[in-house]
Amino acid sequence: xxxxxxxxxxxxxxxxxxxxxxxxxxxxxxxxxxxxxxxxxxxxxxxxxxxxxxxxxxxxxxxxxxxxxxxxxxxxxxxxxxxxxxxxxxxxxxxxxxxxxxxxxxxxxxxxxxxxxxxxxxxxxxxxxxxxxxxxxxxxxxxxxxxxxxxxxxxxxxxxxxxxxxxxxxxxxxxxxxxxxxxxxxxxxxxxxxxxxxxxxxxxxxxxxxxxxxxxxxxxxxxxxxxxxxxxxxxxxxxxxxxxxxxxxxxxxxxxxxxxxxxxxxxxxxxxxxxxxxxxxxxxxxxxxxxxxxxxxxxxxxxxxxxxxxxxxxxxxxxxxxxxxxxxxxxxxxxxxxxxxxxxxxxxxxxxxxxxxxxxxxxxxxxxxxxxxxxxxxxxxxxxxxxxxxxxxxxxxxxxxxxxxxxxxxxxxxxxxxxxxxxxxxxxxxxxxxxxxxxxxxxxxxxxxxxxxxxxxxxxxxxxxxxxxxxxxxxxxxxxxxxxxxxxxxxxxxxxxxxxxxxxxxxxxxxxxxxxxxxxxxxxxxxxxxxxxxxxxxxxxxxxxxxxxxxxxxxxxxxxxxxxxxxxxxxxxxxxxxxxxxxxxxxxxxxxxxxxxxxxxxxxxxxxxxxxxxxxxxxxxxxxxxxxxxxxxxxxxxxxxxxxxxxxxxxxxxxxxxxxxxxxxxxxxxxxxxxxxxxxxxxxxxxxxxxxxxxxxxxxxxxxxxxxxxxxxxxxxxxxxxxxxxxxx
Length: 729
Hints:
Layout: H1 29-34, E1 41-42, H2 45-53, E2 57-58, E3 64-66, E4 75-76, E5 79-81, E6 84-86, E7 93-96, E8 99-102, E9 104-106, E10 109-111, E11 114-115, E12 120-124, E13 127-128, E14 130-132, E15 137-145, H3 188-196, H4 201-212, E16 223-225, E17 230-242, E18 247-249, E19 253-259, E20 268-269, E21 274-280, E22 285-286, E23 291-297, E24 302-304, E25 308-314, E26 319-321, E27 324-330, E28 334-336, E29 342-348, E30 352-354, E31 359-360, E32 373-375, E33 380-381, E34 385-387, E35 391-393, E36 398-399, E37 402-403, E38 409-410, E39 416-420, E40 423-429, H5 432-436, H6 438-442, H7 444-451, H8 468-486, H9 496-509, E41 515-518, E42 527-530, H10 532-554, H11 562-573, E43 581-584, E44 587-590, H12 591-602, H13 609-639, H14 648-678, H15 680-683, H16 689-696, H17 703-719
Parallel strand pairs: 2-5, 3-6, 4-9, 5-10, 6-11, 9-12, 10-13, 11-14, 12-15, 13-15, 14-16, 15-17, 16-17, 17-18, 17-19, 18-20, 19-21, 20-22, 21-23, 22-24, 23-25, 24-26, 25-27, 26-28, 27-29, 28-30, 29-31, 29-32, 31-34, 32-35, 33-36, 34-37, 35-38, 36-39, 40-42
Antiparallel strand pairs: 1-3, 7-8, 39-40, 41-42, 43-44
Helix pairs in contact: 4-12, 8-9, 8-10, 9-10, 10-13, 10-14, 14-17
């Protein structure tokens, strides 16, 4: 414990910056750069007289500067130390919700601060080294101060600081093997590149340098409170920079933070929170007893009801309630609720939902806490599921309740995985979402669009469940099932192509369905693939639907015929084909383009994060064409012939099949939701149909189903001229 020292009252505002770190012997150098002010004057004798009469004290009245519209009558019971600059004051009040306070400064101790026009500072017991912008309310705050080494949540170092004090985020791995440091404009794409490609030492060095380049190592920056912000009933605020329209109420401790906020995307911090060492994204809300330490949250995120977020990056449009998350990199559109959820050392590619009781990654099952879990988009572990590190999951995996006691590598997207009492192997049902819960998967696009409240988009996000990442996994799963089907028990055949061809025949002709065994799905016991022939057929239909849906969204098909379309597709076919894709923070980027981006960072063609973000946007602009070119490859793969060899019958089949799939999606989505209205076990708590509709709403009024019906009708009508004729397929 440090001793309390007694010093002269004249020293209270001195030595904000140690002498060895002063710039031009000017203690207020950065203050003036942050807040360049003119048209300020010293106090007049009459104003000083009024201030003294109102029980105010200053160690030096000549160190207080004011505007011509300053009103000394509105300053009462305050102590001032050091250089103080005060803006206009009018005989009016500021109002925020039910709080109304007269403009002015009262009952406060203020040290070396700039106070903007028409501010309310009332009962702030210690306010030191802050720039308060116009029209702010600071009410009932115990301590609000800025140190000379303030970094506002960024993982940088100031002059004289040891590397050991740098703030790192140990995402994806508890053993710090993927650690990154936070910075103000970080998005999940940045965090992924930094945490993933650890073998590229030069890239790691450049990422550190381009981040540090944006921040001065000099000491002496002041804390800031942006215009129209409200801070009330808070205990400790230290080294925090608030953007405009920020709102903090009842916080216990806020330390070393940047709170990004704007008029269109205001951020809010609520009661009982303790938040340290982090960046809070625009439009975010953290309230009701949450704890967050060493973190970055994206735009439009929520932490509430006692959530704990540590050593993690949370993507845009995500909500965390009640539960605890440690050492995670989580992409956008993540939902996690319920008090018993637990998530450690994962990289989750977003659009995910974690159910109650999920113990994902209890890291004490190896000799070191260095295990990881990696899950593709749409990861959905059910109630009371537990996994062992290391495990990896393809896109849109639903996990049934169970204790999965061995490491898993689930390669089949849109699957249900579960356990059976009579088998040690993990059970896998590919294409489960399409067959049994189409409503949920088809609703994704509609749901995510409605939940995206960002006014400014920096992180680009692919929200369609059928996209190059999930389709490439489907193509892999098709080939994998073909190989496993051809690999009969005691098979001596070694030629993989022959096995695949044999497997195709089995999967196409087997009507009663079969089971397959995949030894790579789970350590020691492998996995049983249930109903692979059914999944094989639906996977293919979804691939064709993906391709045609891209035709539909890319071109205006109303005004062209099949020949025009084919000519346009021939031009697209000339574009570069990308087969391998990375999900980079929510944006899908071809492997080769990501390699180019990384190389440009290493070669210093991209010298800061703004330039990197601009490159993301350039790639996003090219993405529709790249995706369409990939769609043509997918058709070639499914039809097993080159694009130039497609016949009229092939095109008829393609469009007819896509129309059938669109109708299938609509019908099965409706049927999936209808079960909630017809299942007797769902209905038993209602006395009659009217009560059930009053509680659940009428299925006929379901916004998503209405939208899906309309979109499907348009899709079928427009594509009807390209297909619909019975074909040989």
